[in-house]
Each structure stands twice: as C-alpha cells, then as structure tokens.
Amino acid sequence: MMGDAPQKKDSRNNKSRNSPTTKTTSDVKSAPRQDRDNERKNEFTGERRNAKRVKLYRQNQTEKITAQRIREERIDPKQGHSERISKALAMSGVASRRECDNLIAQGKVTVNGRQAQLGQQITAQDRVEVLGRPIRIKWQDRLARIIIYHKPEGELVSRSDPEGRDTVYDRIPLLRNLRFTAIGRLDYNTSGLLIFTTSGELANHFTHPRYEVEREYAVRIYGEPLTSEQIKELKTGIQLEDGKANFKDIIKLEREESDARNHWYKVLLMEGRNREVRRMFEHFDVTVSRLIRVRFGPIDLPPRLKRGNYYELNEIEVARIMQSFGLTVAGTSR
Q1: Which end of the chain has fewer CB atoms within 10 angstroms, the N or the C?
Q2: Residues 6+ apart with CB under 8 A from 101
Q3: Is 187 a catalytic site residue?
C-alpha cells in the first residue's frame, strides 16, 4: 500500500526525523529558559494548562492526495475474526479495558442474552449489551491514530490519581477518548517520548518482549563517570530483584556543560520494566538526576517538539509505522 506514497520528504521534516544516533545530543538539551519559567509559574499558581498541539510537517499536494486515499481506506476483518470482549468494548468507547473487565466480572455484560465471561471472544455477529443497553461494537477497520507527546517531569501516565497530581490525560483532552491507549509508560520523574494509539495490536507490537523493540534513553548522572568495568557489566547483565537486566548498548555523550560533575549517557534496552534504567544505575550506587526517552522503536522524539507539546502523526506517517510492524493501516494483523 505504501508503494504509492511519495518518497520525497520535506527538508524540514528530515530535520525532525534524523537518526537517533546523530541527534541524541540535541534531544537532551534543557528546555529554553522561557519554558522553565512558565513551568515554575504554573507550579506556583496551581494552574493546569492543556498541552499544546503542534504541526511539525506541512504536506505538499501529492502527499495530501495520498493521505486522503489512506484515510478513506477500509480494512475488512478476516473471516471469522474475533476480539476479546473487554478489548472490543474499550475500542467502542464503553470504558477502559480494566473497567470493562470489572463490568464483566460483575455480571453487567451479556453476549447474545447470556452473561459474558472474562476473556470471552466475540465476533461481528454477536449481540452485546452493557447494563441492558445494546452496544454497537466499533471494529478497527479504518486508519489507526498515533499521537506523540513530549512528556515533562511531574506528570503521571494514568487516567486518574487519588493524590490529585497531574496526569497526561489531564493535559491532553483528546486522550479522554477511551479508544486511545498509552504505549508503555514513563514514571513521574521521567520525561521524553510518550506514544498513544487507537490500535491495541500496534501497542502490543511495541511493548511485548517477543518483538524486541528498542527503547533509547538519554541519562544524566551526577558525580564520577562510569568506569569501563561498570559499563561492561551493564551491557553483559546485572541482577535486579525482578530478574537479570542489561543494556543493548551504552555510550557516553560528550557535552559542553559548565558543571563537569554531570555526565550524560545514551542507553538502549529491549524491555520496559518499572524504573528499570534507574535501578540499573542504582546497582552501582549511581543516582540518575535526569532521564529522557528519545526514541521508541521506529519513532524518534522530534527536536522541535517542546516539552508539554504533542503531535498527531499524519496518515502517511501512520501508514509507514504500521508497515514497519507488518500491520494494516488500521493496526490489525495482515
């Protein structure tokens, strides 16, 4: 399908799609002074501002025609295609998958007049009701959506927080559409690339260990730089409380900073366990003072996407991401 897409790229777009190995040092620069001042002002006043939606790339006329064709394309489900009922309900905007599981467990969901079971598969021919109300299941047959967000520190990747802290869903009202799911997470004190999509299959391809999708982080530590022995051990593997962990690669970044006690590293790993990068450095009693995700699989954090801003990929960009994982433009298996 992507064979019809134009290969010529706008030079401005090329700047935001550079190889991560050649742009990482620019990605980890501190936010401009004005951004930091605004964040401090918001913390002081208690204001909660929405994230700013930005356009990073302007399509030419040929690309607009291609994008329109992709947008109108329909993907017919395979014969006998089925989905887990909680996933189907979530795709249809009923509630989050977890909440749908709770509704099913409480006996509030029926399929063809019978009480639904957790993990049950349904097809397009099944009649589904929630609390006695018929639900029109929205099967994934159209172009999936992908949003990338430059998450700042101090936001949770959660739809709600009992402590009232800011969440990424508070900042981006568009994500209140329950069809969007976060691809992986970033902890409260970690910034950088965060991806959202309406395709559960794409999210699975990004995060399931069997697909071995790279995550790239810029890491700042304070104090002495790592020794060659420590770097070797981080690459061969260290034992954490939840199993062995290792970096696929770790490279020291040369940066011009007035404080020579700060040292930056680029690290690559193939999984996303909770606080894994921080815990690996803590193994050597090294504290990570800043952690930024700059790439996740085929998606880079664009240098022009400032902290607190988000960008929705256009149709051609979405199709290319799907193609890289062998999925249809709707984000379903071929």
Answers
A1: C
A2: 86, 118
A3: yes
Strands (E), 15-119: 52-53, 83-84, 109-111, 114-115
CA pair distance 101, 98, nearest whole angstrom: 5
Cβ-based neighbour number of residue 30 at 10 Å: 10
Q: Which token pair is 334?
A: 């071929």
Q: Pick the closest to residue 176 from 195, 160, 155 (CA basis).
A: 160
Catalytically annotated residue among 37, 76, 141, 187:
187
User: What is the chain's pLDDT, residue by residue, as a tens digit (334 residues)?
Assistant: 444 444 444 444 444 444 333 344 344 444 444 554 554 445 444 556 899 999 998 999 999 999 999 988 877 766 667 888 988 888 787 887 788 999 999 999 999 999 999 999 998 889 999 999 999 888 777 899 999 999 999 999 998 888 989 999 999 988 887 788 899 899 999 999 999 998 888 998 999 888 999 999 999 999 899 999 999 999 999 999 999 999 999 999 986 555 678 899 999 999 988 999 999 999 999 999 999 999 999 999 999 999 999 999 999 999 999 999 999 888 877 7
